Amino acid sequence: MSQVENRRILLIDDTPAIHEDFRKILVDRSPADELNEMEVALFGAKPQTAAPRFEMDSAYQGEEGLAKLRASLEDDRPYAMAFVDMRMPPGWDGVETIERLWAADPRLQVVICTAYSDYSWEQVLERLEVGDRLLVLKKPFDAVEVCQLAKTLTAKWQLSRQAELKLAVLEDAVRRRTEQLGAANEALQADIVERRRAEQETVNAYRRIADILEFLPDATFVVDGEGTVIAWNRAIEEMTGTPKGEILNQGNFAYALPFYGTRRRILIDMLDDDQETLERRYSGIRREGKTLSAEARVLMGGEVRDIWSSAAPLYNMQGARVGGIQSLRDITELRRAEQERSTLEAQLHHSSMMQALMIQLGHDLKTPLTPLFALLPLVRKQLSDPALDRMLEICQNSVNQIQGLSSKAQELVRLSCRQTALQPVPVPLSSAVECCINGCATLFRQRGITCVNAIDPGIVVEGSSEQLTLLFDNLLTNSARYAAENGTVRIWAELEPGAVTVSVQDDGLGLKPGQSGMIFDEFFKADAARHDQDTQGLGLAICKRIVLNHKGRIWAESAGIGKGTTIRFTLALAEKGIK
Amino acid sequence: MNHNKIMIVDDNEYVRASVEIICQSVQLDITCAAGGEECLSHLESGFRGVILMDIMMPEMDGWDTIREIVGRGLYDGNIIVMLTGMGEPDAKMDGVQEYVTDYMTKPFGPDQLIESLQYYLTLLNVTSGAHA
């Protein structure tokens, strides 16, 4: 701490002689000092503590003293102490000077010099904030006293300064330590916040995963490493009717109970089994990686259900097995629908096979029928024996029946073909009927029947011209057969919004109550027609098919046996239905 | 010269025989062919007249045969009438329909056959007369 050694003294006194005295005492070297130095040079002895020498500045008035003090402070060479005379006319007295000196440098040690008291000591103390910085030196001075004062007070200044510096160093250390602690504390705080955030994040993530599992649409449960149920989601509650409360934290295969009514190993317990063992338990079981999937039929809530399920092991971050998860799906409805679909497909396949068969049969029948048709009349022409002719007639009629049956059956099959989509065109109703009446003219004439077409010539319906012709052909042929001998067949049409109801009425055989619904069935023959070899029982079935193809309705009305029959059906009007 | 010639093309022997018997009963000149190839060879040999052609035949059906007749330039001077079951739609007829003069539905009676054949012969003689 040599840098704080300070032997600078300021003397403020208005008496120049005093300055001389002080200089002799404090600055000039004494003979004793010189002696001391010689001793050290000659004998190498440890030097006696020499009276220290001081650096002294003089001022003769308080103002001058203050100026010197300020200059010294500016030069960073402060005075350690000052001797200040009490009375220094005409300027400031000692007390005022000291006040001002201290105002400029509070560390300055001061000795006040006085011969008599202008102020009592009490007054001085009253005027100055003295502390331990002020001593009193009474005139006349003793040289030793002055020297001791100087030594003591400069030493005191140095000690104070050292203490101050030490304190500053300590304070600095404390400040730096405090700063470090503050920074550490801040870091710690930040760390705590970060940890809390991470913890919250973990909690949230866990929550989210739990929620996802909870709301997973597939019925799902999770077990821990001991096989204790640790999750049982809503879908599985719904599927099994077993609430969480009854199953969570249960071990010992409790999860099998809702499905099998007994505690047993299920898919989730078989993750480590070999394929052969698996196959024994669940046929068709599949393993993809670590996941097993299988189907099982179980009795649940008194109902047989088909359940598809898959199970997989669960691992923690370290790769250790911590449990398993199993999802289940009720596929009963799916299986049922599949069953129904395959049944329908089989039926459809069967029906199209039958259809193809019927068409082929109908077609193939034509070929063997052709020689019979062609040759029987030729043979009959060459016979004169009536008995033989009768036999051939029977054969010929039978051939006709086969031909009729095969034609009608083929027609019906063709009309029922799903592929035969109706492509409707506007068909003038009255002229279509007229055309068919002409076709049946021979039949009508044979039985003396009058046919009346009362349809408004302006009516145009929407339909297939070919099918409608076939429809009227069949209806008129029927009427021609079953109308009364020399009777009348009437055809008329009644308009409705967007549609027309057509009626074909005869006055012949009529129907028994209850027959009207059956006459449209395939191969149905009313009693009277049962022995008619010219009919096949397919005519009205064909009519019904055609009307259905046109999205219409067909029905029969009859007041009873012998009271005639009316066949009625609806057809859609063409856009410009009436001309 | 009047053509009186008829050819029946059908894989069924009895159908061929029946047509043959009926034609012979009214002195119509009848040639029989059991399939498309035979029909073509008759045409190659100079046959011209009314051809009654069955549609469904093994190997070469009626439509294939017509295609071949036209392709070989043997169509002129003939009338082709298809023998058919009723109304079966057939995608194979596309493009050769215009060479078919009429359809005759199986089975047919002798009177109907004779009547039709005589009509077609008249038609054939008129058109070839016009060509001539």
Give a quick precis of the structure.
The complex is a heterodimer of chains A (579) and B (132). Chain A is α/β, with parallel strands linked by helices.
Ordered list of secondary-structure elements with their pairings:
The complex is a heterodimer of chains A (579) and B (132).
Chain A: E1 8-12, H1 16-26, H2 31-43, E2 55-59, H3 62-74, E3 81-85, H4 94-104, E4 109-114, H5 121-127, E5 134-138, H6 143-215, E6 219-224, E7 229-232, H7 234-240, H8 244-247, H9 257-260, H10 275-281, E8 286-288, E9 291-300, E10 303-315, E11 321-330, H11 332-381, H12 386-416, E12 425-428, H13 429-439, H14 441-446, E13 450-453, E14 459-463, H15 465-482, E15 488-496, E16 499-506, H16 539-549, E17 554-557, E18 565-578
Parallel strand pairs in A: 1-2, 1-3, 3-4, 4-5, 13-15
Antiparallel strand pairs in A: 6-7, 6-11, 8-9, 9-10, 10-11, 12-14, 14-18, 15-16, 16-18, 17-18
Chain B: E1 5-9, H1 13-25, E2 29-33, H2 36-44, E3 50-54, H3 62-71, E4 79-84, E5 102-105, H4 110-131
Number of helices of chain B: 4
* Gross morphology of chain B: globular
**CATH level 1 name of the largest domain in chain A:** Alpha Beta
Instruction: Tell me the CATH architecture of chain B.
Output: 3-Layer(aba) Sandwich
Which band does the percent of strand residues of chain A land in? 15-25%
Provide the CATH top-level class of chain B.
Alpha Beta
Secondary structure class of chain B reads alpha/beta
Oligomer status? heterodimer
Query: Which fold name fills CATH's third level, the topology of chain B?
Result: Rossmann fold
Estimate the helix proportion of chain A, in percent. 40-55%
- Can you tell me the CATH topology of the largest domain in chain A? Rossmann fold
Main sheet properties of chain A: 7 strands, mixed
Radius of gyration of chain B: 14 Å
Structural class of chain A: alpha/beta
Separation of the first and last Cα atoms of chain B: 10 Å
**CATH architecture assignment name of the largest domain in chain A:** 3-Layer(aba) Sandwich
